[in-house]
């Protein structure tokens, strides 16, 4: 099948590459001339494990193309995916201007039947708006489909190639057939393609992310309670997670969720609810809990240093909002850095992938270590903000040799509390008695 993907950001590039991998001919369109040049020359523009290999192969085998021209990009295409940014506007609602501008342009240049697919996370009612924007100028027949993505950064290729489910919102038989054929190779193991109306598909995406965010904020509050009551959140997590109705996954407490999706999508669903005069009470609480959770470790750190962090130096392991990505959007580490600097402390940070991005935002307000152990030199304590695998079984001898105090504040519960006690550390984590 010939496919066009408009927008070569994270979702667009993964989508385009993975569709090429199943034999489709994919043209990706982007207005960013530099990006298109880089991608055409074989330089990948995002960090995502496993993507580069597929990208290089499909480029070499002439199944993946890049262009800045929408006209050229959609020629002969049967399906056009819109993978454009939908940033939060000033009022928290998703800004649809990128999506609607492209829809408007498409309407002017389409000459034969095409399926236009909303892949970006868009509020309920967007398929209708996209349809209207295209129809304004278009003589050719077309269908607009909502097909939200459920990719996780860091495992996006796997999520795309083996999805738990594919959600397709359309009431057109013709579009349903095209989309069903396109996704058939991805659901061979029997996972469902769920066909539904456009609005339900659009809401499914927000409901999924908001529910997952709710699980996290819920567990973060349970963790707070565990500390107050002297219980251990790891035990409670296992205790509740083995109930299949609750499930084992996504119950890990920590220093809050970050990234480009959960914060934005929860906020957008709250806004959508307000727009129809409904106050989504649970989600407001989810956001509030998450805001305070990002600085959960701060009072513990302050208490250890007698409420005075002036002149103290901290080693910080982990900057990305989660492991296996260089993404620092809404990363709890950034909040911690700001809070420590405000208290008059200094920070040396290490992250396997995200230091370049942090340097662009934080600049030389902190120092950047080349290695996780050099990061510790002269530090008064170690703070852990991201659960990268390389931090999970560190050399504790090296840690204690470098730190001025044997103190670790762990926002991701990487170590056994009993073991840390044996090793003589002052170890504080989330929801467990030190
Ligand atoms: C999330 C969803 O998981 C994807 O299904 C969705 O497609 C994507 O948003 C999106 O809308 O594009 P992502 O933001 O990449 O994916 O990251 P997750 O792995 O879901 O983690 C989100 C945040 O939750 C991270 O900050 C992570 O540290 C935190 N988290 C996750 C916890 O604090 N505890 C957990 O148990 C799990």
UniProtKB/TrEMBL annotation:
Ranges where the UDP-glucose/GDP-mannose dehydrogenase C-terminal domain occurs: 315-417
Oxidoreductase keyword on record: yes
Protein name in UniProt: UDP-glucose 6-dehydrogenase
Pathway: Nucleotide-sugar biosynthesis; UDP-alpha-D-glucuronate biosynthesis; UDP-alpha-D-glucuronate from UDP-alpha-D-glucose: step 1/1
Catalytic reactions of this protein: UDP-alpha-D-glucose + 2 NAD(+) + H2O = UDP-alpha-D-glucuronate + 2 NADH + 3 H(+)
SMART domains: UDPG_MGDP_dh_C (SM00984)
Similarity section: Belongs to the UDP-glucose/GDP-mannose dehydrogenase family.
Residues reported in the UniProt entry to bind substrate: 150-153, 205, 250-254, 258, 322
Keywords for the protein's UniProt record, in alphabetical order: NAD, Oxidoreductase
Domain of life: Bacteria
Classification via PANTHER family: UDP-GLUCOSE 6-DEHYDROGENASE TUAD
InterPro entries: 6-PGluconate_DH-like_C_sf, NAD(P)-bd_dom_sf, UDP-Glc/GDP-Man, UDP-Glc/GDP-Man_DH_C, UDP-Glc/GDP-Man_DH_C_sf, UDP-Glc/GDP-Man_DH_dimer, UDP-Glc/GDP-Man_DH_N, UDPglc_DH_bac
